[in-house]
Amino acid sequence: MGISMARIDYAPNGGLNPPHTHPRATEILLVLEGTLAVGFVTSNPDNRLITKVLYPGDVFVFPIGLIHFQVNIGQASAVAVAANAVFGSNPPINPDVLAKAFQLDKNIVYYLQKQFGGSVGQGPWDDMP
């Protein structure tokens, strides 16, 4: 369905998600903890490296099909979530479900739902008996 998501935990001092591609999807990365250096290589003809240092709350987009990577440049562990449709659905996925799935505080789930433009709050099944 073109949707993927992952919680990524990076070891301190160089924990790495090595260079890779996603040929059929753009990736959105949200840093929850730590400091990550991220980058991707543009397409031909210039094959230019685009890099950025990310801190908690920062979001970065890796365009479809381009080689990209992340590395923890901090002294402590780092955590990021790579997702879009999961936090941006309308109606929303129940925050309790997302908090348990990603091992996050529910307030962080609310924050992510706001950032990805989805509805915030309880899912449609919460009113069911």
TrEMBL record:
Mn(2+) binds at H20, H22, E27, H68. Residues 1-110 form the Cupin type-1 domain. Oxalate binds at N17, H22, E27. GO terms for cellular component: apoplast. GO terms for molecular function: manganese ion binding. Keywords: Apoplast, Disulfide bond, Glycoprotein, Manganese, Metal-binding, Secreted. The keyword Manganese applies. The keyword Acetylation does not apply. It comes from the Eukaryota. Belongs to the germin family. This is Germin-like protein.
